[in-house]
Amino acid sequence: MLGGIMNKKKLMRSGVALALSISMAGGITLSTPAVAEASTGNIIGAIVGGIAASAEMNKEIKYYNTTEEGRQALNNQLREKYGVNDDYALNNQLDRIFTNLTAAIGSQDATIYDRPYLYFINNENSFNAFCTLGHNMSVNTGLYNYLNNEDEIAVVLAHEMGHGQKDHPARGMKRSLGPAILASATGTVLGAIAANIWSGQGLTKPMEWEADNLAFDYISHSPYNPGATAAVWQRVIDMDGNNSANVVSIMSGAADHPSNASRRDNYAKKLTEMSGGKVTVNNGTVYINKKEFVTPAPANGMTSAERAYFVMGNLAAAYKNGHAAADAYADGSTVMLGAQPIITAVEGDRSAADMADQLNKIK
């Protein structure tokens, strides 16, 4: 009998995990179980049943979110459902990014080591990445069709890790599934979860902003260019416009998530603050102390505007780390400010020597 109970629990948990993974696809809709005709007795019974179902739901969420057995079980089902891309170069890069970001987050939040992130590249062709229960993360293969800069990819993952560190997936799931559980109290927890195909795991706009702001902190403590935080959103705008509801779903999740421009501008403001108020960007031109420094030429698949934010990030880091006290100089085609590289001149740019001279005049 005990073995039968254990098998039943494993079967139920397997079904719950599968339902959770199915919900991420966002393309499947299941009908809600029929509710019996209302009466006082039925309503009271539904309330009691709903409370029990909600408690069971919370128990299952906790299992997949906090236990190693549950985390691994969900990871295995995600891999089975979405497939695994074993490309050596991409996985080597992903390992490097997670190593760098884990160290950056760990310098501020040691709890990351309690549940190390489980991650893989899946075979989905859309432009996205996600973090779900148990610090399970996955990057869509399609993301690499749009991003080839490691710093920008790191920003995407830092945002998702921000969700993970604040337990947004579990909190959002309870928020989005709770009403469905109560509304279908005559069914099972598994049935209610399967019937409720939630979008973005119940993430809210405040959660999105919190993850964005955490991503900036994480990137700023990593080897990556902090300007990539604004640059990646400029890239999204260049590809897809400012409509947050468009096809590009990078770092999205909430139905009311912020606009692409507002996210870019939030990061640009943080970069200006990092520089002590000295560096700004306007329409693809970088300004220092309100004086024009450079309008980078389009290069390496980036627009002038996207590239400007990388220059802004380098300058902000230089001011933050004290390199701006030194003279700027040209090291081959690269403008240096102390030990900090600022911009590497390419075809269409002014020479590195000219840019270094201008930087010394206005910094």
Q: Can you offer a commentary on this structure?
A:
The structure is a single chain. The protein is mainly alpha-helical. The protein contains 12 helices and 9 strands. It has helices at residues 2-25, 40-66, 68-82, 88-106, 150-165, 168-183, 189-195, 205-220, 228-240, 260-274, 304-320, 352-362; strands at 118-122, 129-132, 136-140, 279-282, 285-288, 291-294, 328-331, 334-337, 340-344. Strands 1-3-2 form a 3-stranded mixed β-sheet, with helices on both faces.
Key features of this structure:
single chain, 363 residues, mainly alpha, 2 domains, three-stranded mixed beta sheet, three-stranded antiparallel beta sheet, 12 helices, 9 strands, 11% strand, elongated
What is the secondary structure topology, with strand pairs?
Elements: H1 2-25, H2 40-66, H3 68-82, H4 88-106, E1 118-122, E2 129-132, E3 136-140, H5 150-165, H6 168-183, H7 189-195, H8 205-220, H9 228-240, H10 260-274, E4 279-282, E5 285-288, E6 291-294, H11 304-320, E7 328-331, E8 334-337, E9 340-344, H12 352-362
Parallel strand pairs: 1-3
Antiparallel strand pairs: 2-3, 4-5, 5-6, 7-8, 8-9
- Please state the overall shape, judged from the principal axes of the Cα atoms: elongated
Structural class: mainly alpha
* Percent of residues in β-strands: 5-15%
Gyration radius, in Å: 24 Å
Low-confidence stretches: 1-8, 18-40, 185-200
* Average pLDDT: 82
Percent helix: 40-55%
Could you say how many structural domains there are in total?
Answer: 2
Per DSSP E runs of 2 or more residues, the count of β-strands stands at: 9
Distance between the termini: 77 Å
Number of helices: 12
Mind describing the biggest β-sheet?
3 strands, mixed
| Order of H and E elements | HHHHEEEHHHHHHEEEHEEEH
The order of strands across the largest sheet is 1-3-2
